[in-house]
Design a protein that fits this description.
Blueprint (H helix, E strand, L loop, with lengths): L9 H21 L7 H16 L7 H25 L3 H25 L1 H11 L4 H33 L6 H13 L6 H29 L2 H21 L5 H14 L3 H5 L6 H6 L3 H11 L6 H32 L4 H4 L2 H22 L5 H15 L8 H13 L9 H15 L5 H17 L6 H15 L1 H30 L31 H17 L13 E7 L4 E7 H9 L5 E3 H8 L3 H12 L6 E4 L10 E4 L9 E3 L8 H27 L1 E3 H12 L7 H13 L3 E3 L6 E4 L2
Parallel strand pairs: 2-6
Antiparallel strand pairs: 1-2, 3-5, 4-5, 7-9, 8-9
Helix pairs in contact: 1-2, 1-3, 1-4, 2-5, 3-4, 3-6, 4-6, 4-7, 6-8, 7-8, 8-10, 9-10, 9-13, 14-16, 14-17, 16-17, 16-18, 16-19, 18-19, 18-20, 19-21, 20-22, 20-27, 21-22, 27-28, 27-29
Length: 745
């Protein structure tokens, strides 16, 4: 019974406990002692239990708690500290690991013997638990005294390893584990007593190394060493440092090895970034990107050098194109020089873009900074005038050559598709996209109308790509043109069927009509022509058919686009002539009489002098002299006389007689300028309608922002359009502030 239990005095009880503690110390010191038997453990535990559960004044819980602490302190002062003080360096570290392991065993056993204190007394009085008391004793007596020496010894080992020597990594890991455990659940001890010094030491070590490398090594060699250092430091964390040190440690290395010397590395005379780009050192460039990405603001200088390099390469291509054009003018008969300088230039630009886009993907990990650098570099030289033409015109011309039948570039369908994809990518860098659109539409119209397009699928494919790049409005007219041609083919089939239904309707000659929608196609000049009798019946017949099909549509005949195939009966052999309708009308006049004056031809056909001169020149002064001209010279005058050349012959049985080329560049540019005026007007009105009142500068900025996708509007033109809209009562100036505009509803 509880009441019959014998009272244990403090000193008697503690003497018994002291014997157990002495045995435990002996076990820890030499290991020769037998371990505790279950009976011994129970007796020691029961003694503490009984001493803590006796009624006051014999409840010795407080005294036992204090003596528990004293037992640790006594052991540390008498055994642990002397053993540690007599050793230095690595030997001290090994002793410390051993002593710390022993201390933890002692804590584990004593906290079991005194366990009853933990359960009741400590909780009631809100005191440190037995395990923590044991740890605090070690921290206050051992760690506090030795932490500086221990830190120095560990750093010395780290330095040895950095210099290539082998060290006992397990020992260092155990020592750093002590630093962590001394934080009692926090990281303050490890961070303040060891890590801070490690970081300082690391910075100094790599500062010394880098100062030597920067003088001795090339940029690629230096970066190889830097990458290797970072790899080793990362491994070091894995081997023995705490995981939380990794970021801080690598940051110190990056700061000393990379950030401190970035400018010097990038600008090294024979091995810097520009040289690596020039020599296509992709592996070194990829390493440079990986390393400088690690440091704050490390990539913009690399991207800037990349941009300048690409820009320089592009400007070189522009100069080469200019030089080639000059050589072509000096030696016009040189076929190699005459082989489309523009085509070579665009192809070179595509190759340049392919090359450096691959750099952005492979070396610079698709980083947006380098995509922007590439874009800005290409925008510089892609908007220069090359051989008298804008890049917008050259790209349109390149596409035209690529999509024509009999293209000089013998490419497979897949290669054509890839090239078109690349052209559309280049278009993104061109500011005058509307100018490209107009030139492309002009070229497209000729391919479609004169059946020069090599493949309908390619035509539709590039329109889809352009639509994705520039929006539906950009391609709506072009898509309408392609659709018109398809409708025209169906229309022609219906017309043929209508003729078959009644043979009396069929004219004396075969003919086909292409009906175009006015809004989709470029503006064509309407030229009056007194049609040859052979053609009049064709026009009348088709008009009858079309009027029955669509009553309220008006047809305007663009004779200048008409194509005719006729047979010329010459003395040596008949030759099939492929010519336009004006040329055909002229030649048919010579069926009636062999010689005609210029004035007679003009009178009978009603053609303007401009068209007369071009068509007569092609028939009498160019390669195929179907007509003879008096006097014999290369110019057409109003007093010239033309005679049918019966002796004309050619080795071919079918020939095409082309017209002298008209440079319609100015007309295209004029049309674009006109469209731009409308676009600026619309943007101004749209902005003012939504904002009602705006200052001049804000209005101009918003208009530029709206239009910049298609072209870069000139500020002076915007100002003129604002003045024009004021005169037309769309806007008005504020009475108090003339720089503010109001929308007039």
């Amino acid at each position: 019974m509880m009441g019959d239990r014998k009272i244990i005095n403090l000193e008697d009880g503690w003497d018994f406990m002291q014997k157990g503690i002495t045995k435990l110390r002996a076990i820890l010191e030499d290991g020769g002692q037998e371990p505790f038997t279950p009976e011994e453990y129970i007796n020691l535990y029961t003694t503490i239990y009984n001493m803590c559960t006796q009624k006051p004044p014999h409840d010795f819980s407080q005294q036992l708690y204090e003596r528990y602490r004293e037992a640790f302190n006594a052991y540390i002062i008498s055994d642990v500290l002397p053993a540690l003080r007599e050793k230095q360096g690595e030997y001290m570290l090994k002793e410390l690991v051993k002593r710390w392991d022993n201390h933890k065993i002692m804590v584990r056993w004593l906290s079991r013997f005194f366990n009853y204190l933990d359960r009741y007394y400590i909780q009631r009085h809100n005191l440190a638990q037995l395990k923590d008391v044991g740890m605090l004793c070690f921290r206050d007596l051992v760690y506090s005294e030795l932490k500086k020496n221990v830190k120095d010894a560990v750093l010395a080992l780290v330095d040895k390893e950095r210099d290539g020597e082998q060290i006992d990594r397990a020992l260092v890991k155990n020592i750093l584990g002590i630093f962590v455990e001394m934080g009692m659940g926090g990281m303050e001890a490890y961070e303040q007593d060891f890590e801070a010094h490690l970081l300082t030491n690391t910075a100094a070590f790599y500062s010394r190394k880098a100062s030597v490398w920067i003088d001795e090594d090339s940029c690629p060699d230096y970066l190889v060493k830097a990458e290797e250092c970072l790899r080793r430091e990362k491994e070091r964390v894995g081997h023995y440092l705490h995981a939380s040190s990794e970021t801080k440690l690598l940051k110190e290395v990056e700061k000393e090895v990379l950030a401190a010397y970035e400018t010097q590395l990038l600008e090294k005379e024979h091995s810097g970034c520009a040289v690596l780009l020039r020599d296509d050192k992709t592996e070194d460039l990829a390493r440079m990107f990986r390393l400088f990405k690690r440091i704050p603001a490390g990539l913009p200088p690399v991207a800037d050098i990349f941009k300048k390099h690409v820009e320089k390469e592009g400007v070189t291509l522009v100069k080469q194109a200019e030089d080639a054009e000059g050589a072509k003018k000096e030696a016009p008969k040189d076929k190699a020089a005459a082989q489309g300088t523009e085509q070579v230039f665009v192809r070179s630009i595509i190759q340049l873009h392919d090359k450096y886009l691959q750099y952005v993907v492979d070396c610079f990990s698709n980083d947006s900074l380098f995509h922007r650098a590439l874009k800005e570099a290409f925008e510089v030289f892609c908007n220069k005038v090359v051989t008298g033409s804008t890049s917008a015109e050259l790209l349109a011309l390149f596409c035209d050559k690529l999509l024509q039948k009999g293209s000089s570039e013998k490419l497979s369908d897949e290669e054509v598709e890839m090239t078109l994809e690349k052209v559309v990518k280049l278009l993104a860098y061109i500011s005058d996209k509307d100018l490209f659109g107009e030139f492309y539409r002009k070229k497209l119209s000729r391919r479609l109308l004169f059946d020069r397009s090599a493949n309908d699928d390619h035509e539709r494919s590039i329109l889809t790509k352009l639509k994705t790049q520039c929006g539906a409005q950009f391609t709506s007219k072009m898509e309408g043109m392609v659709t018109d041609l398809q409708i025209a083919k169906d229309n022609q089939k219906e017309f043929e069927k209508w003729l078959d239904d009644d043979e009396t309707r069929r004219p004396k000659m075969d003919f086909a009509v292409t009906v175009l929608t006015t809004g989709f196609w470029p503006t064509y000049k309407f030229t009056e022509l007194a049609l040859p009798e052979e053609c009049v019946g064709c026009v009348t017949t088709f008009k009858e058919f079309y009027d029955k099909k669509l009553q309220h549509r008006k047809l305007t005949w663009i004779y200048g686009l008409g194509q005719v195939t006729m047979k010329g009966n010459f003395a040596s052999k008949p030759i099939e002539l492929n010519i336009n309708l004006f040329q055909a009308a002229i030649l048919l006049l010579f069926n009636e009489q062999e010689t005609l004056k210029y004035t007679e031809i003009r009178e009978r056909l009603g053609l303007p002098d401009e068209d007369m001169a071009r068509n007569l020149h092609s028939l009498s002064c160019a390669k195929y002299k179907v007509l003879l001209k008096e006097p014999e010279n290369k110019s057409i005058n109003q007093d010239d006389v033309f005679t049918y050349n019966e002796k004309f012959t050619d080795r071919m049985r079918r020939i095409k007689i082309p017209l002298p080329q008209i440079d319609d560049k100015k007309k295209v540019e004029a049309d674009v300028d006109k469209d731009r005026r409308y676009a600026i007007d619309a943007a101004i009105v749209r902005t003012m309608k939504s904002r009602k009142v705006l200052p001049h500068q804000q209005l101009v900025l918003e208009v530029v922002q709206q239009l910049t996708k298609m072209f870069k509007p000139d500020f002076k033109i915007i100002k003129k359009r604002i003045e024009d809209l004021i005169s037309r009562d769309y806007l008005e100036r504020d009475k108090d502030n003339p720089n503010v505009f109001k929308y007039m509803a």
